[in-house]
Write a structure and sequence with these properties.
- The protein is an alpha/beta fold.
- The chain has helices at about 25-35, 55-65, 85-95, 100-115, 120-135, 135-150, 155-180, 200-210, 225-235, 245-250, 265-275, 275-285, 290-300, 300-310, 315-330, 340-350, 350-360, 365-375, 395-405, 435-450, 455-465; strands at about 40-45, 70-75, 185-190, 220-225, 255, 420, 425-430.
- The chain is about 55% helix and about 5% strand.
- The strands form 2 sheets. Strands 2-3-4-1-5 form a 5-stranded parallel beta sheet, sandwiched between helices. It has a two-stranded antiparallel sheet with strand order 6-7.
- Helix 1 (about 25-35) packs across helix 2, helix 3 (about 85-95) packs parallel to helix 5 and helix 12 (about 275-285) packs antiparallel against helix 13 (about 290-300).
């Protein structure tokens, strides 16, 4: 059965990176060594583009840190950005790991000192929400702190002095609590999904971490897409002219960039997850088609194209799911044309105007060739990989299949000519191209001579899911 949403990867406690398909454990080991030197406390960013698997990585890394004796916290900021201020949620995460009476008492003091800083936050929460985030044992102390704050500030000067004193007191309490929590190694506080939060909440998280949690023994790790977080900062200040990257550096002491994933490994992982091999074997079981050629057609040019365009892992995942759904609409014993459908789906998702032009045949063959050449990196024309040994020159052959399908009308009758034969029996293309001439001539001739070619209409119907989905 096709799954529209993949389940989270299982993270075995004893071997957290056992199911990692991207070979990222070495990065976790490097980061572990970095945070091990965090006794003085600092903020580190783990930067990676949206959809590159940061959340899965940090959860695997968190388990690895636990196995190595670190005390860790994972905080999904996006799940809490409905709150007016993140302070309670951040402190609440510390409450979650208060496992004994001594820690609970120490935590209650942290709560009390926090209440003195922000007298307006806790009253607006009410006891029910305070209990959810801070725990039953802290409610009485919160109440006392709130009562105390009602009469603290008589005028602005006193308010300023008391707030400064309260911040210092809070930091001392928090530092003592963190040391009790993790006496041997620094506490690693991972903040994820910050770039998905509303701009106001995102900036407030940064401010609270920098101004209140900048203490010894806590290392904050911000798993972010730096570009998106910079956009949030610009949104918060209502100006694109602000140097958001420089502003962000004020909050971050150490920057680490999560390397670009191995596309081929991830592509194979998704390919297997969606059971493409089983599908190809079923659909070609009794018709004499070459199952392996279909497998390689889907694993050659599409993979190289996606990698050349630097699509995120999430984009690759969604792309492959669409391909699999389109394949599922093809009847058993019919031509699946995976290379053609996969390429047209890429055009539909990322070159939509061209896809529409192809769908309604608004161009002649020369115009189509020119457009295709503009969007395909020239390096892919000659590039070979392990699949190309069985499907040579996959880029050229995919383009040839598109051209042949474009040249057939809905009835499968050729409405335009792609090549002419010379007097000596050779073929000559009717259009100009920058692709390798001989390779393209060979590929066009190959597809044109087949008795089971499909038209653009055939491919589009399956891509648009206008045919019935078969049951697995």
């Amino acid at each position: 059965m096709i799954k529209f949403k993949f389940e989270d990867i299982e993270i075995p406690e004893s071997n957290p990176f056992q199911n990692c398909r991207l070979g990222r454990q070495p990065y976790a080991t490097i980061l572990e060594k970095i945070v091990a030197y965090g006794k003085d406390g600092y903020v580190m960013s783990l930067d990676g583009e949206w959809g590159t698997g940061k959340t899965t990585f940090v959860k695997m890394w968190q388990q690895q840190l636990k196995n190595e004796g670190f005390t860790t916290i994972y905080f999904n900021a996006w799940e809490h950005d409905y709150m007016a201020d993140p302070l309670v949620a951040l402190i609440g995460e510390l409450h979650r790991i208060s496992t004994n009476e001594k820690l609970k008492k120490s935590f209650a003091k942290v709560v009390a000192d926090a209440g003195k800083i922000f007298s307006g936050i806790l009253p607006s929460l009410g006891k029910a929400i305070a209990r959810k985030y801070l725990g039953e044992e802290a409610i009485d102390v919160v109440g006392e702190a709130l009562s105390e704050t009602k009469n603290i500030f008589q005028h602005e000067l006193e308010k300023y002095k008391d707030e400064c004193d309260s911040i210092e007191t809070f930091r001392l309490s928090l530092a003592g609590y963190a040391t009790e929590l993790a006496p041997e190694k620094p506490l690693v506080f991972i903040v994820d999904e910050l770039d998905r939060c509303n701009p106001t909440f995102a900036v407030k998280v940064l401010e609270r971490i920098k101004h209140l949690f900048a203490i010894p023994h806590i290392v904050f790790v911000l798993a972010i897409d730096k570009e998106q977080l910079c956009n949030s900062i610009c949104g918060f200040y209502g100006s694109d002219s602000i140097n958001a990257a420089e502003y962000l550096r004020r909050f971050i002491d150490v920057e680490y960039y999560l390397p670009v994933p191995d596309y081929e490994t991830f592509f194979d992982y998704i390919y297997n997850k969606l059971d493409f091999d089983d599908f190809f074997m079923k659909i070609t079981r009794d018709n004499g088609f070459d199952t392996r050629s279909y497998q390689h057609a889907l694993k050659s040019f599409p993979l190289k194209l996606l990698a050349s365009k630097n699509l995120s892992l999430r984009q690759v995942e969604k792309y492959m799911l669409h391909v699999r759904l389109a394949m599922q609409t093809i009847p058993v014993n019919c031509e699946p044309c995976p290379g053609l459908i996969a390429f047209l789906i890429y055009l539909r998702q990322y070159e939509h105007p061209l896809y529409l032009d192809i769908q309604i045949r608004s161009m002649n063959i020369q115009e189509l060739v020119d457009c295709l050449e503009r969007i395909i990196p020239e390096g892919l024309y000659q590039q070979r990989d392990e699949y190309d040994r069985l499907t040579p020159r996959s880029t050229v052959y995919t383009i040839a299949q598109v051209l042949v399908a474009y040249a057939l009308d809905e009835r499968g009758i050729e409405w335009t000519t792609l090549y002419n034969k010379t007097d000596d029996g050779e073929i000559k293309l009717t259009f100009k191209t920058q692709l390798p001439q001989e390779d393209l001539e060979e590929a066009v001739k190959h597809y044109s001579s087949r008795s089971y070619n499909v038209s653009i209409e055939y491919a589009v119907r399956h891509i648009e899911l206008l045919c019935n989905l078969q049951k697995d």
